[in-house]
Amino acid sequence: MSSAHSAVPTAGSVPSPTSPVSSSPALAAPTITELLDFVRRTARNEALIASLPLDPEGRTWIRLDGPGGSEAWLIGWPPGTGTGWHDHADSIGAFTTAAGALKEHSLAVRLPTDGWKTLELTDGVDRSRELAAGQGRAFGQNHVHEVLNESEDVHAVSVHAYYPPLPRIRRFSRTGAVLRLEQTESPEDWQ
Ligand SMILES: [Fe+2]
């Protein structure tokens, strides 16, 4: 839903707009590299990582201030937990494992935005990567993935950043090659 309509004046039309009044310095949108740099730096902050309460029954979160107005989270993952398949709409993002290890499964495919309920994935779109402590990745818009802690006994902790702050998350279920759109969640639901 990026608005492609930049203010291109049409000759003889409306008067040129006055400069927008800004009460705060404009924040430049963070790049994917800056998000990745932020999550890597944050993951090395041992005191912060240690401050996250860990619950053996479920994931835990602390909201962080990300760079440039981005949305950032410290997340704890008990053994065997995961996100399920989802995407992040138009947000770009980055995450890195700070403790333990995470597995990411992703799809190298651009899903249609709307108007579908099930999709049959073609062969060869699956990607998988193991992210040990200190390892992270960045992703662009419309990234579809699931993240898991596959360990049987080790808690994982990770740091995430998204820009723009997540407007919505689409959740999918998957049976073999068939991806089904289950629901669209706002960030409040996502926690
Ligand atoms: Fe995600």
Automatic annotation (TrEMBL):
Highest taxon of the lineage: Bacteria
Positions of region (Disordered): 1-26
Keyword Oxidoreductase (UniProt): yes
Biased composition (Low complexity): 8-26
Molecular function terms, GO-annotated: dioxygenase activity
Keywords, alphabetical: Dioxygenase, Iron, Metal-binding, Oxidoreductase
Keyword Metal-binding on entry: yes
InterPro entries reported for this sequence: CDO_1, RmlC-like_jellyroll, RmlC_Cupin_sf
Similarity field: Belongs to the cysteine dioxygenase family.
Official protein name in the record: Cysteine dioxygenase
Phylogenetic placement of the source organism: Bacteria, Bacillati, Actinomycetota, Actinomycetes, Kitasatosporales
